[in-house]
Amino acid sequence: MAGVVGRLARRWCSGALSSPLQVTRFPTLQLHLCGPAMTASQKDFENAMNQVKLLKKDPGNEVKLNLYALYKQATEGPCNVPKPGVLDFINKAKWDAWNALGSLPKDNARQNYVDLVSSLSASSESPSQVTPAADRKQPGGDALVVTSQDGITTITLNRPDKKNALTTQMYHDIMLALEAASKDDSAITVLTGNGDYYCSGNDLTNFTDVPPGAVEEKARSGAVLLRDFVDCFIDFPKPLVAVVNGPAVGISVTILGLFDIVYATDRATFHTPFSHLGQSPEGCSSYTFPKIMGSSKATEMLVFGKKLTAREACTQGLVTEVFPDSTFQKEVWVRLKAYSKLPPNAMRISKQVIRNREKEKLHAINAEESSILQERWLSDECMNAIVNFLSRKAKL
Ligand code: COA
């Protein structure tokens, strides 16, 4: 994991520096050299590397050089590579930045890196409306970003180009992230999306590339994955909050019934077009939705695919509160930071008292929904809907 994060950070730095450079001064660095006791842990460092990827604004070449130099110093120690030639401007600037750190100990470099990222993050409004760095557009690269700060672990869907559609890998990664969050020292866990969408549901290309004769097996393994995925939400032990930053489709909507709080921007919509896709409800929505909004409203959504506005979803109890888009991020994070300071054990136990009564039932419903879907995925109705989407004949 650390290696992956490191590679990504390196890519970010070198990628960002491919534009012309104008800077060779490093005031931030010098400020930190004589700072107080150095304490950043490896985990803080990795978190900071993840935060860098979510910065809203480009911090500029000077800061990028500082980040690069501190990263190299923290991971490899003092500059130990030959100086690039004078005409190799970019690599020379990077080398100069690293070399300027002299014999700064690795621990201090790590601390300075964390401090610098923290100051950049503080001036950046929030992680969820970030314009992605160019390298994050690569498929599979950083499709999920996990950060931990102020007692809140945030899992961010990060495929804005694909409206944060969930690939098979992302299902696995979200499960791992939830497992880690259940054990870390955060009080609250948040799921949100980067870009204009919260999530466009299952990535419909998950159904493609199936070799002839393997369709049944693909449907079977898909149902197992779905069941395991939803089980993680049923069993998650801490308060789980959805910060719905834009439209939500399919499974990203159905599992909302398993969250403890759902905050939405007024730009969000909630859409479960299962019949249009020849599919059937999942995420325990066949049970949670009728319970939350009554059976006829649930039927409108789950059977007829009625798309709700954020305000409608709030009136029907699926969404806890709706905020104007212009203040959404600010208001929600202020609120969550306040909640995260409440005694964590009390919050966890209270959540479990509420959830435990229903757990067994939810697991049974999840198993049933997954097995019904396994059949639906093999139906002509479903195949045709996916082919139509992929051949651009149909959009929601
Ligand atoms: N699966 C796979 N790819 C998806 C996707 C999904 N669920 N949702 C969006 N994308 C891709 C699009 O194919 C497009 O890719 P491209 O740029 O390579 O062509 C990209 O994301 C942007 O989407 P686009 O359709 O151009 O944006 P839009 O704003 O016009 O429409 C949606 C957004 C979500 C309404 C539309 O993409 C859609 O209908 N997606 C399918 C949603 C769905 O059926 N989900 C499953 C529910 S169970």
From TrEMBL:
| UniProt pathway annotation | Lipid metabolism; fatty acid beta-oxidation
Task: Please identify the protein, giving its name as recorded.
Answer: Enoyl-CoA delta isomerase 2
What InterPro entries does this protein's entry cite?
A: Acyl-CoA-binding_prot_CS, Acyl-CoA-binding_protein, Acyl-CoA-binding_sf, ClpP/crotonase-like_dom_sf, ECH/Chromodomain_protein, Enoyl-CoA_hydra/iso, Enoyl-CoA_hydra_C, FERM/acyl-CoA-bd_prot_sf
Broadest EC class assigned to this enzyme = isomerase
Looking up PROSITE patterns in the UniProt record yields: ACB_1, ACB_2
Family, per entry: In the C-terminal section; belongs to the enoyl-CoA hydratase/isomerase family.
User: Which SUPFAM superfamilies does the record cross-reference, listed alphabetically?
Assistant: Acyl-CoA binding protein, ClpP/crotonase
- Example GO molecular function term? fatty-acyl-CoA binding
- For this protein, what is the EC number? 5.3.3.8
Q: Which reaction does it catalyse?
A: (3E)-tetradecenoyl-CoA = (2E)-tetradecenoyl-CoA; (3E)-octenoyl-CoA = (2E)-octenoyl-CoA; a (3Z)-enoyl-CoA = a 4-saturated (2E)-enoyl-CoA; (3Z)-octenoyl-CoA = (2E)-octenoyl-CoA
Pfam families per record:
ACBP, ECH_1
Gene this protein is translated from: ECI2
Q: Where does the ACB domain lie?
A: 41-126
Q: What is its main location?
A: mitochondrion
GO annotation, cellular component aspect: mitochondrion; peroxisomal matrix
